[in-house]
Amino acid sequence: MMSGKQRTKIALSFGEPDRVPRFWPGFWPEFVEIWTRSHPGADPLEYFGSDVRLVAPDESAWPGQAGIQRVEGDMIVFRDGWGQLKRSQRTKQGMGELLEPAVRGRIDPDTLAFQDPAADNRYEEAARQMDRWKDDLFIFGKTGGPYLRAAFMRGEENFWMDVAEDPQWTRAFVDRVADHITAVGVEQIRRFGLEDSGIAIYDDVASSAGPFVGPHHYESIFLPALRRMVKAYKDAGAGVVMHHSDGNVLPLLDMWIDAGVQAINPVEFRTGMDPVAICRQYDGRLVCIGGLDNCAILPRGDRDEVRDHVLHLLEAGRGGGFVIGPHSIGPDVDPATMQYVLELLDEHGTYPLARS
Predict the structure, then answer these.
(1) Which of 17, 83, 91, 264 is the most exposed place for a label (fewest CB within 10 A)?
(2) What is the pTM assigned to this prediction?
(3) pLDDT at 93
(4) What is the model's pLDDT at position 90?
(5) CATH assignment of 4-63+104-348, among 3.30.460.10, 3.20.20.210, 3.80.10.10, 1.10.357.10
(6) pLDDT score for 94
(7) 83: Cβ–Cβ under 8 A, 6 or more apart, which residues?
(8) How far is it, in rounded angstroms, from Cα 269 to Cα 297?
(9) CA distance 79 to 101
(10) Range(s) of the chain covered by CATH 3.20.20.210
(11) Residue 58, pLDDT above cutoff 90
């Protein structure tokens, strides 16, 4: 039997391995709590056979400044590594209400000084994960992308106004942030030996209705930085560059492919992103990683609907170029439904794929 690393490499090269590879990005703690009642001590990522894992260093601008600023009853006020001052419940640090962005005005982007992208403490935990998984699984390193991290630093409402009112400044700001992220990406390729696997750019640029900004603004403001990132990662030796974005990104795919992106994730089915259609349209040029609908079909749990959905998605795997998986699995998905998905994949996901 092939290892997860072997089968994923074959699929990403548009070949057919022993079975369609699987990528389970993660399970919410609430799901794991329910699931482990019947599987005590088990790791759901191992149980469900994830062939792919992510390792993510700390790419933030100022990791040394992150921490709790004050406590207000059952709430905390904290600053994250991107300089955002936030308020949240103690148990939900990382989310929360934005009180103050890091960059409050349209300053000269060249005056931004980030902490050293090559600092060892950015990579220590990711390196431990890499050592555990690198022999058996296909590992994607991870960075952010040009849109979302810049929006973190300005605050999203401010950032949208920047795009509309001063696209020239916005591009310069995006370029400055992207240069820092790219340096972190290149460093992890070097440290982790990602020449044998790849790196993922996580940049949520769309909702279910489509991209947050129109094609013109995306192409003029964000695409140049993305193009430089992809080139830098490939020049550093990354085997595959994947772009992750929630939502419907169909209007951006041609631009991404032209920029050198080789794979997309999570291919959210509920938004109109059908991996079967995408794989046919971009045959041999774009790998789809994802497709399982964790927002509607899996939570409903109707066995006939789930079966039809899984069998349809497996059609994207003909000739390789497809890795099946959901976004993260929450407590709205019954563990019994996930068990059924696993049984369907075990029965129908083996090559050569049967005709449905």
Answers:
(1) 91
(2) 0.97
(3) 63
(4) 81
(5) 3.20.20.210
(6) 65
(7) 61, 62, 65, 101, 102, 103, 153
(8) 10
(9) 10
(10) 4-63+104-348
(11) yes
